[in-house]
Design the sequence.
């Protein structure tokens, strides 16, 4: 029983973080049908902002809000630098510009801050543990679960009940048609990037809270996680991204518990092979999502 | 046919000119840079074989470079060195020692074989799914290289690889790669593949088996990448798995994109330009670091500038500097036009 609870908390907290990462990636993909390789760097931006404002003496929540805000700005910037100028030209061009933008941000951090890890201020709660029905678990896991539940709730409300959300879903389903019906394309795309930045910022803080330091390559792992989760769950469906995130967490946690130390080193190779297999079995992912028109 | 020969002549001439110039100057640094350039040329042309003809971005290329480098290294490290460099090596491989030239070809073949098995099912994916799986493939290859300590020495540096690559050899390999890339581009497979690149549905309707053709070009590209990796391994003589990851991918991709992925000429010109710019920037970085103007080491300028250049090129000229026509075709056309006017 204790083990089951332990396992559940592990899966839910990891899955919550993974689901939010995947959601941030897929919200842009859904509308543009383009992958944002610079997504991981939004997390890096949030981390470094937290490091830079760390000495200011502000309350932690304010610092965190500034960090998330910077991630949102970086997200919108990604749209303006890497996507908007080449969006209409070719898929490959956008993939490469976003990859280039990602390298640009990472190396800017190397150049202007430092290649060495930097400490990030975290509230004491992040390093404490709590006992829950006989299971000792870090408080940050519970915070992650709570944040995931709240954010997923807000996000669902936004997508289902507000004009912006409905317009975004329309744009994701049939971009040309949505434009003809008066949905402003650039505004919708920028909003998608802003939401992507918001999710990346929040999940970034939770993610960095696990280690307490930030390095220029911090965004690589979340990017990979988001990739896998969206691919497993379905690249076109927001629900699929969330499902993929939790599924990936389940796979990872199970492998963590079952693989021997020798094989555990190869965990990433196992997970990625699994992704390739799932894509072969269902190129669309597990959840199909709405039928979509051509890329615009 | 004439224009293709013209293209080969010009591109090979460019490489030969470089070699002749460097040999004439006789400066060691230039020799090193030129050899590096020729090896990059092999890698970029390999990527062009797949990307240029199929239109699909592949991240896995550098992974196959790593496969080639490690295979060739394993087969050439002298037996007495192996005990030190790779203490946990399988007994079968311990006694093996091939001449480097043979080992390089084996490196290419192993890379091609790995690619053939892994990629066969992936080739029916297009667009974003194809790119993400190729990215996943790179991560898988990198994870294996980092953790398979028995043959790669794990994340640590593998040393003791005999030095075999010199400038003339790298130049010959580069010229062969130019010819291979052009020959593939103009072959039946290459032409059909480019038809599927421009319109997958129309090409499919005309009976083109897109997945099959993509697979062929992918295997050939992996073979070239494996050779390139082996050349690099015998040039640098000690390396770790991190040499075959995102940074290298970015550089090789940058060279191809800036020159123009669709043409062999673009691949060659891009490699020359980016190598030139890179070495210049690296010299500036080195000068800044040795002058100690800043309190910490300056790193990353080269990547920042390359990234900006890539974005700028893609915004201004999405196809790169040579988007559609090879240099030979461009010159032949110009010549014909002039004759027509007079």
Sequence:
């Amino acid at each position: 029983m204790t083990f089951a609870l332990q396992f559940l908390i592990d899966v839910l907290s990891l899955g919550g973080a993974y689901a939010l990462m995947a959601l941030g990636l897929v919200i842009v993909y859904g509308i543009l049908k383009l992958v944002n390789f610079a997504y991981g760097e939004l997390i890096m931006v949030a981390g470094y902002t937290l490091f830079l404002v760390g000495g200011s003496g502000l309350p932690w929540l304010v610092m965190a809000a500034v960090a998330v805000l910077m991630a949102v700005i970086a997200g919108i910037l990604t749209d303006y630098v890497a996507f908007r100028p080449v969006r209409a030209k070719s898929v490959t061009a956008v993939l490469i510009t976003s990859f280039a933008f990602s390298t640009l941000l990472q190396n800017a951090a190397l150049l202007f801050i430092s290649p060495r890890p930097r400490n990030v201020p975290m509230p004491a709660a992040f390093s404490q543990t709590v006992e829950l029905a006989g299971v000792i678990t870090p408080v940050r896991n519970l915070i992650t679960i709570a944040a995931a539940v709240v954010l997923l709730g807000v996000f669902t409300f936004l997508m289902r009940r507000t004009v912006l959300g409905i317009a975004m879903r329309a744009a994701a389903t049939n971009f040309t048609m949505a434009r003809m019906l008066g949905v402003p394309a650039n505004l919708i795309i920028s909003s998608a990037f802003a939401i992507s930045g918001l999710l990346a910022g929040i999940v970034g803080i939770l993610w960095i809270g696990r280690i307490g330091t930030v390095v220029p390559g911090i965004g690589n792992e979340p990017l990979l996680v988001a990739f896998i989760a969206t691919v497993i769950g379905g690249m076109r469906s927001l629900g699929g991204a969330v499902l993929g995130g939790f599924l990936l967490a389940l796979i990872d946690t199970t492998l963590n518990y079952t693989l021997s130390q020798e094989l555990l080193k190869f965990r990433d190779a196992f997970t990625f092979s699994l992704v390739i297999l799932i894509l072969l079995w269902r190129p669309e992912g597990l959840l199909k999502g709405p039928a979509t028109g051509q890329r615009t | 046919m004439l224009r293709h020969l013209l293209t080969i002549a010009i591109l090979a001439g460019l490489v030969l000119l470089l070699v002749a110039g460097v040999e004439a100057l006789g400066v060691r640094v230039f020799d090193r840079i030129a050899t590096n350039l020729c090896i990059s040329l092999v890698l970029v042309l390999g990527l062009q074989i797949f990307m240029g003809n199929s239109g699909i971005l592949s991240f896995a290329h550098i992974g196959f470079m790593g496969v080639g480098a490690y295979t060739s290294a394993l087969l050439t490290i002298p037996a007495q060195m192996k005990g030190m460099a790779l203490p946990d090596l399988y007994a079968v491989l311990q006694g093996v020692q091939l001449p480097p030239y043979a080992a390089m070809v084996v490196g290419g073949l192993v890379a091609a074989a790995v690619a053939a098995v892994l990629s066969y099912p992936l080739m029916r994916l297009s667009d974003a799914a194809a790119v993400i799986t190729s990215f996943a493939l790179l991560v898988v290859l990198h994870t294996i290289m980092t953790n398979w300590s028995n043959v790669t020495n794990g994340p640590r540096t593998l040393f003791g690889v005999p030095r075999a690559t010199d400038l003339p050899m790298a130049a010959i390999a580069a010229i062969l790669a130019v010819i291979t890339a052009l020959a593939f581009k103009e072959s039946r497979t290459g032409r059909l593949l480019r038809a599927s690149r421009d319109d997958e549905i129309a090409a499919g309707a005309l009976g083109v088996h897109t997945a099959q053709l993509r697979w062929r070009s992918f295997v050939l590209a992996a073979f070239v990448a494996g050779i390139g990796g082996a050349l690099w391994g015998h040039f640098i003589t000690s390396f770790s798995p991190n040499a075959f990851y995102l940074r290298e991918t970015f550089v090789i991709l940058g060279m191809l994109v800036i020159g123009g992925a669709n043409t062999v000429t673009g691949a060659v010109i891009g490699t020359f330009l980016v190598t030139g710019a890179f070495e210049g920037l690296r010299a500036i970085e080195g000068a800044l670091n040795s002058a100690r103007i800043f309190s910490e080491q300056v790193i990353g300028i080269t990547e920042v500038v390359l990234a900006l250049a890539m974005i700028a090129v893609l915004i201004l000229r999405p196809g790169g500097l040579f988007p559609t026509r090879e240099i030979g075709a461009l010159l032949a056309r110009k010549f014909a036009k002039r004759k027509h006017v007079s």
